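for the writeup, i need someone to sanity check this before i put it in the appendix. the sequnce is what the collaborator sent (i think, or maybe the updated version? ugh). structure was predicted straight from it, no edits. if anything looks off just tell me and ill rerun, i have time this weekend
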Amino acid sequence: MPSLILFLECCKALGMETTPSLTLLDVDELTSRHVPAFSPETPAVLAVIETEARLEMARRVLLAVYPATHPVKLVRLSADSAQVADSTLAGMSGEGWTALYLPAQAAGTSFEAFQEIIAHLRAPDGCPWDKEQTHLTLRKHLLEETYETISAMDEQDAAKMSEEFGDLLLQIVLNAQIGSEYGGFTMTHVLKGIYDKIIRRHPHVFGEVAVEGVGDVLSNWEKIKAGEREKAGKEEKGLLDGLPAALPALSQAQEFQDRAARVGFDWPEIDGVLEKVREEIEEVRQSQSPEEFSDELGDLFFALVNLARWKKVDSEAALRAASLKFKLRFAFVEKRARGMNRSMKAMSIEELDALWNEAKKSPGL
């Protein structure tokens, strides 16, 4: 660990004898992590660098939080002089540097700053709407933001995903703030709970357990969860218990099938899955009553979800993508019909089908 005197000498070389807040960190402590262990809203001095390799390792970790263009200062101390060089996180290089100075990022880039503005919204001088919210009133907003986030993920729109993840985070932090006000739980409880759970359920990463592939991981996961329930004195649940009832039907079906497959309840080959789909199609075809048709159609959907699972396709995402594709193609047909001064209702199925085939040939549709 670098001495405090060395840090003070670096600060003196940087003209920072006094600063309201500053992180002093051994660069080895930084490079042993995957993300920086300090707030990006606080300036930091990292020592001792010395080699190009250590500088590169520091850069790798810092880029998880800071932009490549973030300005930095490199400090080289000798017995009778000090050298300071300006650079950027991406451009910094060289041997023999004593320390790296990392200026703070703009306000609002730390999790703590975000917690503060949410707490302010709930404070006496905060927002009337936010102050009225409860866990129950926020349920619909959490669900809405979740679906908007999923939509952005489906579109693979990075800018939109960034925005929607922020909106989703707002819901989590706002609920945690409400929990802290009523003594139920705080954000610390939320973070500590999931932190411990991740470590506990990943002994193959954070412990000595050896696994071979995803199958072993999932099997071990179920054993750990069963052990947790037993330790907590909870009644043993079935393998398919615990999924929320509000989960979309396709996602629920695929999760049921995934869980059953973990204990070997699955077709040995995909041929069995395909044969089951054909069987269910025939049963739908032969159904005699609305009730029978509904029942057989449900079985067909379930078999198709199983086929998707075997092909490692997310059935929910696949159907959403198909629905979006239909929407875009239908909009194309509507626009073309308007351009022809025709009403779609007045057009024949052959005319509409011709426009549909035209839509299918259009880029992106």
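The chain has four domains: 4-102, 111-200, 249-303, 316-361. Residues 113 and 286 are 62 Å apart (CA to CA).
thx in advance!!
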